[in-house]
Amino acid sequence: MNYPLIDTHVHLDEMADPDEAVLEARKAGVMALVAVGMDLVSNGKVLELSRRYPGVVYPAVGYHPWKVEISGLRANLEFLRSQADRAVAIGEVGLDYKIGVPRQIQQGVFQDILDLALEKDLPLIVHARLAHEEAFEMIRKQGLQKAVFHWYSGPVDILKELLLHRYFISATPALAYSPKHREAVSLAPLKQILIETDAPTAYQGVNSTPAQVRQTLTELAKLKRVEPEEAALKTTQNARDFFGLA
Which residues of 219-243 are buried (b: 16+ CB within 10 A; e: fewer)? Predict the structure, then answer.
């Protein structure tokens, strides 16, 4: 059966045909999508798509570490502040120590974003690569109540700490083949898991769509050894509570 699902992380603005992607997802029983932004341009597109599909596309505005440039810091951060009240979350944001942006600059930007999330009382959608401990510690010290570590595949000891602090992780279609991702999701309780696609990210060479969040659900149910209905009901309620969706 097609139990209602929510794709909690999709780059809808990067889809070749966002309108077709939304339509296809709805036909597949996806009741809502959280469209994440990465910079000025994508945030603007995400907000426009949310206006076009009210009650279906929910916007998250962010400043991804891949997009951080000195020349654009002020404009991006000011945009986040000006548009945060229209968003259900701040994201995609975080730290990525595999890229060339200096760590000090990344951390400064992330701290400004954490300040905004606390002020606006908005949940955080976190990207962390080779920086899980630093990202977690900054969020913890800030005292944020809601954060989801997107596509968690990091160290188990940090995972256990963030779960103790009642933060979430998200599961993706990579559950089908990624040992580290499977290990993380297997350790996390269902009550702290969201499901997503990260579309149009390619999995094993094939670009994904929001409709394929049902594949994430199938893999999650198998991994957790629960019925798909149970996994669907729980993760959908998790998403509603986390993002404050109607």
Answer: bbbebbeeeeeebbebbbebbeebb
SS (H, E, C) 46-114: HHHHHHHCCCCEEEEECCCHHHCCHHHHHHHHHHHHHHHHHCCEEEEEEEECCCCCCHHHHHHHHHHHH
CA atoms of 22 and 50, how far apart (whole Å): 11
Distance CA 104, CA 153 (A): 23
Amino acid at 181: H
Task: For the chain, give the mean pLDDT.
Answer: 97
Q: What is the pTM of this model?
A: 0.96
Give per-residue pLDDT as tens, 60-110: 999 999 999 999 999 999 999 999 999 999 999 999 999 999 999 999 999
Measure Cα distances from 138 to 68, 87, 111, 135, 242 in Å: 18, 22, 7, 5, 20
Give the whole-angstrom CA distance, residue 119 versus residue 95.
Answer: 20
- Residue type, position 100, single letter: G
What is the number of helices (H) and of strands (E) in the chain? 9, 10
Q: ω before 92 within 30° of 0 (cis)?
A: yes
Under 8 Å between Cβ of 148 and 167:
yes
pLDDT of 207 higher than 70: yes
Q: Count other C-beta atoms under 10 Å from residue 115's C-beta.
A: 13
DSSP E strand stretches across the chain = 5-10, 30-36, 57-61, 89-96, 124-129, 147-149, 168-171, 193-195, 202-203, 206-207
Q: How far is CA 74 from the centre of its chain?
A: 24
